[in-house]
Amino acid sequence: MTQNDFLIAPSMSDAGSRTVESGKRRRGPRPALPGVEYHRVLAGDERRIGRGVLALVLVLFGLFGFGGIIGYAGGQIDLHVFGRHNIIAGGTEFTPIMHLGNVVSIALLIPWSMCIQRWLYGVKGASLHSVLSKLRRARIGRAVMILLPVWAVYLTVFTALSPYQVTDWAVSDLLWLFAITIVFQPLQAAGEEYGFRGLAFRVAASWGRGPRTALMIGIIVSTILFAVIHGSTDVWLNVYYVTLGVTWSLITWRTGGLETSIVIHAANNTVAFLLMLVMHSDPVSGGDRSSGVGSIIFLMPCVLMAIITAVIWFRTRRTGPARTPQLDASASAMYAPKAQ
Fold first, then answer.
1. Judging by beta carbons within 10 Å of its beta carbon (0-12, 13-18, 19+), is residue 84 exposed, middle or buried?
2. In this structure, is residue 3 part of a structural domain?
3. Residue 19 is inside which H or E element, if any?
4. What is the count of structural domains for the chain?
C-alpha cells in the first residue's frame, strides 16, 4: 500500500461492526489507521456530513451545556454559602467559585470530545492527543521552554500598551483566583483545543476528498466555530480569533498533535489572567467583546503567531506533517482475515 493509498483509504469508522478473522467481530474502538495525517483520521469513502454536523453540534452542546449547569451550581453555592451574587447568577461580582466553574466546564471538552469521536466514528478517543495517540512529553517540554517565555514577554508588553480599569480586590479572592488559574486554566485552554483543533478540525476535514481540500475545510470550519463561540462583534477581536484558529490548526497539522497549540493557548490564558490579578484589573470590563473595544494592537499577537507557525513549518519542511505510525505485524493481523 502506498502513501497515497493511506490518504484515501476507508476510515473504517464502523470497524467495530466489520468482520475480521473469519467472521468474528473486533470489539471496541479502532486505533487511527497507519500513515495518515492528524486531520485525516476520520476520513473515509463517504463524507458522512450529517454525522459530522451532529458531532459539531454535540461539541457546542457540551461547551454551553456544561457551562450552564456548572455555572448555575456555582451561582447557588456563591449565594447560599458565601452570600455573594456572581455575574453568571445575575449579580455583579467576579468570584473564585464562578471562575472555577467556568474553567472546569470548558476543560470537560477533553473527555467529551473523545467520547463523541468514539461514539460517532468508532475511533479511540486517545487519538485526539496526537498521531501517536498520546501526549508527547518531549514536544510539550520544548514548547513550554521556548514559547512560554516568548508569550509572557508579549503579554507583558501588550498589557502595558492596553487601557484597563482598576477595581478593588479582596486579598482572599486574589489568592484563590491565583491558585485556580495556575491549576485549572491550562486545562480550560486544553479543552478548547481538543474540541476545536481536535475533533472539529478532524470532522470537517473528513468532508474533503483530497488531503489539501480536507485541510482547507477543516481549518475554515473549526476556525469559524472558534471565533463564533467567543461572541465578539469587534472587527479587531475577530481578526485575532480567526488568526489564532488558523495558525493553531496549521501547527496541529504540521506537528501531528495538539501539544504545541495547547501550550500556546494555556500560556495565553494563564499569563493574561495572572497579569489581570497583578494589575488589579476589572475582569468584567476586560471581558468586554463588543464592537469598538479592540484596536490595531491586536495585530501584535497575530504577527507573533504567524512567525511561530512559519518557524514550525520550516522545521518540518523535509519530513512534512507527522503521520500515524505503521502498524506492527500483530496489530495488522487484527484487521486481516485468516487464510482459508
1. buried
2. no
3. strand 19-20
4. 1
In a domain, 25, yes or no: no
Quote the domain boundaries for residue 285.
Answer: 30-327
Q: With contact defined as beta carbons under 8 Å apart, do 187 and 105 qualify? A: no
Place of cell 476510515: 11
Q: Which residues contact 98 (CB under 8 A, 6 or more apart)?
A: 71, 74, 75, 78, 86, 87, 88, 89
Residuewise pLDDT in 10s, the chain (340 residues)? 333 333 333 344 433 333 333 334 456 788 888 889 999 999 987 889 999 999 999 999 999 999 999 999 999 999 999 999 988 878 889 999 999 999 999 999 999 999 999 999 999 999 999 999 999 999 999 999 999 999 999 999 999 998 888 888 999 999 999 999 999 999 999 999 999 999 999 999 999 988 899 999 999 999 999 999 999 999 999 999 999 999 999 999 999 999 999 999 999 999 999 999 999 998 888 788 999 999 999 999 999 999 999 999 999 999 999 999 976 545 545 544 444 3
Q: How many residues does the chain have?
A: 340
Residue 4, in any domain of the structure: no
CA nearest to 265, candidates 276, 281, 279, 249 = 249
CA 202 to CA 40: how far, in whole Å?
A: 6
- For residue 20, give the H/E element and its range: strand 19-20
Phi-psi group of 36: left, alpha or beta (phi > 0 → left; psi -120 to 50 → alpha; rest → beta)? beta
Grid cell listed for 296: 490595531
Let me know if residue 337 belongs to a domain: no
CA distances from 80 to 67, 83, 89, 97, 121 (A): 20, 6, 12, 12, 43
Helix axes 109-121, 96-107, angle to 10 degrees: 20
Distance CA 195, CA 90 (A): 28
Q: What does the H/E/C string look like for 45-113?
A: CCCCHHHHHHHHHHHHHHHHHHHHHHHHHHHHHHHHHCCCCECCCCCCECCHHHHHHHHHHHHCHHHHH
Q: How far is CA 181 from CA 118, 153, 220, in A?
A: 30, 19, 30
User: Do the beta carbons of residue 313 and residue 254 sit within 8 Å?
Assistant: yes
